Amino acid sequence: MRQAGRYMTSYRAIRERHTLLEICAEPELAAEVTLQPVNEIEVDAAILFSDLLLPLAPMGIPFDFVKGEGPVIDPPVRTIERIDQLRRFEPREDLAHVLETIRLLRSQLADKVPLIGFAGAPFTMASYAIEGGPSSNYARTKALMYGEPDAWHRLANTFASIVGDYLVAQIEAGAQAVQVFDSWVGALSPEDYREFALPHTRAIFERLQGLDAPTLHFGTGTTTILKAMRDAGGDVIGLDWRIPLDHGWDLVGADRAVQGNLDPTLLLGPETRMLRGAFDVLQRAQGRPGHIFNLGHGILPPTNLERVQTLACFVHEQTAQAQTVQ
Asked: Catalytic: 2?
């Protein structure tokens, strides 16, 4: 999860010279950053370096990253008139630089590890557009959902269509798996998720059916909506650290794979405690096919690179030992 980032000295060196959006816009730079963790950590897949919000600009939703605040959308999308002005674009043209990064990475990886592409789910994308940036309560988003449901569904449907096309284009360019991130969806109750988010997320996964690429579906704070997320789609359902992995897998169902679910803050504490937590995750998985060991969310900026390396080696060692015993 979020392999490349500020915990890496090599990444910080590039960020001293380039903004995040400049890196995303330059395929050679984006590929270089994507490969940094592949070259330094025993990861089993590379995660495309990009940003969830890239589709906003070609839609007609300007945004930028403000130091200390994160992404800022100005003006935000809060009226039906504004929603109707949004542009449905061709990702092969307007996001061609992302697709070129994928093609470049496939040649540079030479099948050393597979490449995972990604995009944002409609609820999270729409929430960013409505709130104008990060939020703690998603009040404006929910106000639109409850007060103008037709407008909400029109906006979410627009995002579903665009994200579906974007992920298809990523697969065509060479992404060997794709992940749909619904980072903010844990703010919804199970009932609200089924009414306002599930139909649009499901439309994306239905769009991807039949393509030669596994699909992953991730959110945080999703303990109460895991069954509904499963119904929305995804070959793999992400589990965060708020639920034991075996309990989460029971909710998701044995016919789906899961990824997770070590608390990323454990990497900031004593190594022994981190490894104990990782061992617990592996024990709960019981060696069943379909478990992708992962953090419950992204690697945090203060994390020591050596700690990440130690964790990856530990998981590989434990998995190899378990397979030998079997």
From this structure: yes
